[in-house]
Amino acid sequence: MKPLLSFSAAVDAICAFVGKAVSWLILATVLVSAGNAIVRKAFDYSSNGWLELQWYLFGAVFLLAAAYTLQRNEHIRIDILSSRLSKRTRDWIDLVCFVVMLLPFTALIVYEAVPNVLTSFRQQEMSMNAGGLIIWPAKALILAAFVLLFLQCLSEIIKRIGVLNDAIADPTPEMHTHPANEDMILEDKPGA
Description:
Structural class: mainly alpha
Number of domains: 1
Radius of gyration: 21 Å
Oligomer: single chain
Number of strands: 0
Number of helices: 8
Largest sheet: none
Strand content: under 5%
């Protein structure tokens, strides 16, 4: 189990680094968007390339942060149901869903994306919009994101098995609700 846990820790470190690094692309997206709007209003000039760059940057954040979000256990859940289950039951549900759904899905997307990205790169595929950007980097982002998500899914499977076998402490402590919802729950409780 030790080599698997080492692999899991390495994947966690990579996904955390990428997830935190791409958060800076939000600032870049805002700056590009603001600059594009100012140039469009002040100089009556616009470019499809700048608009597509905004989409690429936002897409990079959304896609590349997905594995980090999974690692942090921040994906949306149906809290009204899962909060009524024991932590062990939720770990089993996570393990089964990772193995049966997420792992095959991410593997399929990676399998389908590789030839698509390679073809787009070889052809230097361009946007159909006038002044648009090349498309292969956006397609490569999809591939990179799903490779990271696949690896993080493997890491989560390893950690869930470790937790269920009492080989490791639970890296995702029990949380009945998302921290953002705690204020709403406190407001509903009498005397809070």
